[in-house]
Design goal:
It contains 16 helices and three strands. It has 462 residues and is mainly alpha-helical. It has three domains: 32 residues, no CATH class; 73 residues; 357 residues, no CATH class. Strands 1-2-3 form a three-stranded antiparallel beta sheet. A hairpin with an 8-residue loop joins strand 1 and strand 2. Helix 5 packs antiparallel against helix 6 and helix 9 crosses helix 13. The radius of gyration is 32 Å and the shape is flat.
Length: 462
């Protein structure tokens, strides 16, 4: 990149890097570039742009769907004499709510030619799933708009102990940070070296001075007052939440219905190809709300880190009795520090990771509480603009509805389906790869052409 910039600007100076001069030099550079490279580079970029746009448009039109079969889950739980847990009541309907929005988008794309009239079709599909007159499922969007925020609060209650641990961890990490100060100073010496800097006709010897690395002084200062406070705070947290665990059962389905199966298959079909999934695949898709949820993905890590933190508390209780200032020199820039310092660092690392994993779950739920009312409002506004001739920007509203739905889904189902839809950055990358490929082909042709011309000139001379 630096070499290309130098070729375009000439000598890299502040003056040459001004936009006006940069553009002028770029135009001159383009004029000097062989036509084969320019033509094939532009052609490659256009082909890459077309391929990227086509692929991303296809993704936008077929967001993969997977409904949770929450009605079946409720029936099965009732037959077993079980209550449906808050984790199931929150995650499964949340999944189905955003899936209904994605389903509306898929249908609208299917029924609009090259995206024309998409907003109107989208509004019509949303109205079919929000207007009680058209209700033909157990739950429509209106039901989800009401129940999901309520169930989010119930779910947060089940995470109250984890939330309390998360709230206390930053203070403990801060105390451990204050327990040690470490400094690392690199030592160098100066050497003079000679090298040949003349020409064959005028040989000369030049000298230069360089800094040569010798070693590093490491200093570790221990602050016992903070070491004691950190130990007390961590021990207190562990005693208050000794058996930190999440015991609510995830109730999944072992059956799928025809409509859910069709939605799963149609949304995953490739162009002109009918897809038929087996029962195992369909059940896996239906239960992705559980297996791909941020809660499920993070729980194992949370339990492991809590166990690590309990071990750190025991280790620090011993380490603080022997911790002291230490100073030494090594022949490496990096040093892991005294054993007691390493215990403190390990505790900070485990505490920060634990906080982040818990926070990821809770922040996803809080996002939903804030965004569901906004989603409901924008859905109704889009229907009003497109179907009732009310004023408003339907294109902007449709985009906001999809963005809100995608954000809520990705925050709560980190290993769920790929629901990103159209990715502009992928189109740009595809175009850039096309440009580079075309330019390289053009460069090859230009080199071959030059060699061919030289060959014929030599033959003519002979």
């Amino acid at each position: 990149m630096a070499n290309l910039l130098k070729k375009i600007t000439g000598k890299i100076t502040k003056e040459n890097l001004k936009p006006k001069n940069l553009f002028k030099n770029f135009v001159e550079y383009i004029h000097k570039t062989p036509s084969e490279i320019l033509i094939l580079g532009v052609a490659g970029a256009m082909i890459g742009l077309g391929i990227g746009h086509h692929y991303e448009s296809y993704r936008e039109e077929r967001i993969p769907l997977g409904f949770s079969e929450i009605t079946q889950i409720r029936r099965d739980a009732q037959a077993r004499g079980e209550e449906v847990t808050s984790r199931t009541l929150y995650l499964a309907p949340l999944n189905d709510m955003v899936m209904k929005v994605f389903e509306c988008s898929n249908e609208a794309h299917k029924n609009s030619l090259y995206g024309f009239a998409f907003n109107k079709k989208f509004a019509q599909e949303l109205e079919m799933r929000i207007e009680p007159t058209f209700k033909f499922h157990t739950n429509d969007l209106n039901d989800f708009f009401k129940s999901v925020p309520v169930n989010a609060n119930l779910f947060l209650e089940s995470l109250a102990e984890h939330a309390e641990v998360m709230k206390n961890l930053p203070n403990i990490s801060q105390l451990f940070n204050k327990t040690w100060d470490d400094y690392h100073v690199d030592n160098y010496h100066t050497e003079t070296r000679t090298y040949d800097c003349g020409t064959s006709d005028n040989p000369q010897t030049c000298t230069e001075t360089i800094q040569v690395y010798d070693d590093t002084d490491h200093s570790y200062y221990y602050h016992p007052e903070f070491g004691q406070k950190a130990s007390i705070a961590l021990d207190k947290l562990i005693m208050e939440h000794k058996n930190l665990s999440y015991n609510e059962k995830a109730q999944t389905t072992i059956k799928t219905n025809a409509e859910g199966e069709m939605a799963s298959e149609v949304s995953r079909e490739k162009s002109g190809e009918h897809l038929k999934l087996n029962q195992g695949e369909l059940i896996k898709i239906a239960n992705t709300w559980h297996y791909g949820s941020t809660l499920t993905q993070n729980l194992g890590k949370i339990n492991s880190l809590w166990s690590n933190l309990q071990g750190d508390a025991n280790s620090w209780r011993k380490a603080k009795t022997t911790a002291h200032n230490e100073f030494y020199t090594t022949y490496s820039h990096y040093d892991s520090g005294p054993a007691e310092f390493q215990v403190a660092e390990s505790t900070i690392n485990h505490g920060n990771k634990l906080k982040n994993y818990i926070e990821e779950i809770i922040s996803g739920v809080n996002q939903v509480k804030n965004k569901v009312p906004a989603l409901e409002s924008k859905v109704k506004e889009l229907i009003g603009v497109e179907l009732d001739n009310k004023p408003g920007n339907s294109r902007k509203l449709a985009k906001e509805i999809m963005n809100l739905s995608q954000e809520m889904y990705k925050a709560n189902f980190k290993e769920g389906f790929d629901v990103d839809g159209y990715r502009g950055w992928m189109v740009g990358l595809s175009s850039l790869l096309g440009l580079l490929s075309g330019g390289l082909i053009g460069f090859g042709i230009d080199c071959a052409d030059n060699k061919w011309n030289i060959y014929f000139r030599n033959r003519k001379f002979e």
